[in-house]
């Protein structure tokens, strides 16, 4: 579905991403893990059209999207849940959801998908007329995910969805990631919480200083000695 080939990105002369290649198969959950500065967020932002690549190719179902404007990329079925949630704080929950569907013209479908999002996140339905800026951090994260789903994406990219959230809320967010995937949406997940990410992912990639250092099935990487030592804080006994 989503294919990244030889992607390189520079920030002010610094190589943030160095010729990486990976695939996100349809219907799967794929995660990129790594420390701060590894290039994970830059990779997502480049796929979304928010950062210009130096070299490489990004295709969705065989169509090149690298170089397209962000709204064109959304129209091809790729949406992103940004780091820090970035909800429209002065708009209501419902207004935020409707903004997620700004490229769509099918009013009946939009209303149906709003109800679907409310089924996924009952808390949002309870707060549909509440200003997004007054929601808790966990509720704002739910709203950010629901807003991205309103574009009816083929693939949803999530940048650090657990960042700054209490452990019990984090578990709920990962449960939702599984549920979204079971509903047929492909997921590309970037996470510092390597333990949770690898447990939920079908396949994972470990990024270090702009390069992919390791890759494999999520549970296989979870058992890898190097991953356990560097990212989980434990070594296999």
Structural features, described:
This protein has 237 residues and is α/β, with parallel strands linked by helices. It is 38% helix and 26% strand. It contains ten helices and ten strands. Strand 9 (203-208) and strand 10 (211-217) form a beta hairpin. Helix 3 packs parallel to helix 6.
Task: Describe the global form.
Answer: globular
Measured on Cα atoms, how large is the radius of gyration?
A: 17 Å
Low-confidence region ranges:
none
User: How would a crystallographer describe the biggest sheet?
Assistant: 6 strands, mixed
Sheet/helix structural class: alpha/beta
Helix run count: 10
Give the averaged pLDDT, no decimals: 91
> Percent helix among the residues?
25-40%
Task: Trace the largest sheet across and list its strands.
Answer: 6-7-8-3-9-10
Distance between the termini: 38 Å
Fold topology:
Elements: E1 2-11, E2 14-24, E3 29-33, H1 40-47, E4 55-60, E5 63-64, H2 70-75, E6 78-81, H3 93-100, H4 107-120, H5 122-126, H6 137-149, E7 155-159, H7 167-182, E8 186-191, H8 194-200, E9 203-208, E10 211-217, H9 218-222, H10 225-232
Helix pairs in contact: 3-6
Summary?
Helix content is 38%, strand content 26%. It is of the alpha/beta class and 237 residues long.
Please name the defining characteristics of this protein.
six-stranded mixed β-sheet; 10 helices; 10 strands; globular
């Amino acid at each position: 579905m989503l294919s990244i080939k030889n992607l390189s990105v520079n920030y002010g002369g610094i190589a943030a991403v160095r010729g990486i290649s990976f695939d996100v198969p349809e219907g799967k959950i794929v995660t990129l893990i790594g420390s701060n500065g590894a290039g994970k967020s830059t990779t997502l932002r480049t796929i979304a059209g928010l950062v210009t690549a130096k070299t490489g190719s990004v295709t969705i179902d065989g169509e090149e999207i690298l170089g397209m404007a962000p709204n064109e990329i959304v129209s091809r079925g790729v949406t992103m849940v940004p780091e820090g949630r970035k909800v429209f704080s002065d708009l209501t929950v419902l207004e935020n959801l409707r903004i997620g569907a700004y490229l769509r013209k099918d009013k009946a479908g939009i209303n149906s998908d709003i109800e679907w999002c409310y089924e996924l996140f009952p808390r949002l339905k309870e707060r549909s007329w509440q200003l997004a800026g007054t929601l808790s951090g966990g509720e704002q994260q739910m709203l950010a995910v629901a807003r991205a789903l309103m574009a009816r994406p083929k693939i949803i990219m999530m940048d650090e969805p657990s960042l700054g959230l209490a452990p019990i809320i984090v578990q709920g967010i990962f449960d939702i990631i599984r549920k979204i995937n079971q509903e047929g949406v492909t997921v590309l997940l970037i996470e510092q919480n390597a333990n949770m990410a690898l447990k939920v992912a079908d396949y994972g990639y470990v990024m270090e200083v702009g390069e992919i250092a390791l890759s494999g099935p999520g549970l296989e990487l979870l058992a890898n000695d190097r991953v356990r030592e560097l990212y989980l804080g434990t070594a296999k006994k």
